[in-house]
Write a structure and sequence with these properties.
Elements lengths: L5 H15 L1 H7 L4 H21 L6 H18 L22 H21 L3 H13 L5 E2 L2 H23 L5 H22 L1 H5 L4 E4 H7 L3 H6 L4 H21 L12 H19 L13 H17 L1
Parallel strand pairs: 1-2
Helix pairs in contact: 1-3, 1-5, 2-13, 3-5, 3-6, 3-7, 4-5, 4-6, 6-7, 7-8, 8-12, 8-13, 12-13, 13-14
């Protein structure tokens, strides 16, 4: 099969994001075209890696092999000087991902990622970290402390922001921008963790610090029973406050990126901050139904982000 054209590759990335990561598509809408396409390529990569880890219809060993193949293909698509020969045997062979549709998606998104990396200087290590975090999901399903959980969040969320920074275009201190992008990623992933407690439990995953659950008197049995009792509400309020502090740090990144790109981190922070507002408004009860925002609410937050970005 011939490689997809660059236009087709980016179109496929956009379709993946539109189907499986709509919040991010909203945040990208107002960016200049080539930068929007670059971000869509990055998020398509993240979505494909995450979907592989979460594909409960496939045996764990198959998922591990597919993620190893995905990482090997990334190395092949974005080679670096001094790369050793790939030592993972047939992971680059056709069919290594185990699904024809997935093979086609990966072929397309790697064409788009290679172009994005060339245009903007996206680091392969940041993209690889995302896939490493998805691999970790296969074997680590509890986190003892916040530091442990934050390490995981840095792989699956902060690394995404770090990959996006060159596409945004950094105009301030790059080290400070990376530290603030890290905080924004932590804030967004912690918001996801709070929203998705029930969904994660269904996969026997608890992305909540075990020591803090114990300190607040929240048991796993209570989580499985969906009890939004006083202990849970105190625990969740503590996590919401932590997320808000991280958002405050993360938003310091905004003036460090190109003016026309600022709407994107502002929109993402607005969307995820609004999810925190919803969690608080319903008494931190995340068990009665998935916390979500309506399309009009998302569009309103997008407008607010655009206005703030224009004034920065």
């Amino acid at each position: 099969m011939s490689a997809p054209t660059l236009e087709d590759a980016y179109a496929r990335c956009r379709a993946i994001v539109a189907a499986r990561a709509k919040n991010f598509l909203y945040a990208f809408l107002l960016l200049p075209g080539e930068r929007r396409r670059g971000l869509e390529a990055i998020y398509a990569w993240c979505r494909v890696a995450d979907d592989l880890a979460d594909d409960d219809d496939r045996p764990l060993a198959d998922r591990a092999r597919a993620l190893a193949a995905l990482r090997a293909r990334l190395r092949a698509a974005l080679p670096l000087p001094g790369d050793p020969p790939d030592a993972q045997g047939d992971v680059l062979a056709p069919g290594a991902l185990g699904d024809a549709a997935l093979e086609a998606d990966v072929d397309a998104l790697l064409v788009a990622l290679a172009d994005t990396a060339r245009r903007f200087g996206v680091a392969r290590a940041d993209l690889d970290d995302v896939a490493r975090g998805c691999e970790q999901d296969l074997t680590v399903v509890r986190y003892a402390t916040w530091d442990d959980l934050a390490g995981y969040c840095r792989l699956v969320a902060s690394a995404v922001g770090l990959a996006c920074l060159p596409v945004f275009g950094v105009v301030g201190d790059p080290e400070a921008a990376r530290a603030e992008a890290d905080a924004l990623g932590l804030a967004m992933q912690l918001t996801n963790v709070l929203r998705d407690v029930t969904e994660d439990l269904a996969r026997d995953r608890v992305y909540l610090p075990q020591d803090e659950l114990a300190r607040f008197g929240v048991t796993e049995a209570a989580l499985r029973a969906g009890r939004a009792d006083e202990a849970w509400r105190a625990f969740a309020a503590f996590q919401v406050a932590r997320a808000r502090d991280l958002f405050a740090t993360g938003l310091r990144m905004v003036p460090r990126v190109r003016r026309r790109s600022r709407v994107c981190p502002l929109a993402l922070a607005g969307l995820y901050g609004a999810l925190l507002d919803r969690i608080e408004a319903q008494g931190h009860d995340v068990f009665s139904g998935r916390v979500a925002l309506s399309t009009p609410r998302k569009l309103g937050l997008m407008g607010a982000a655009f206005g703030r970005g224009a004034l920065c």
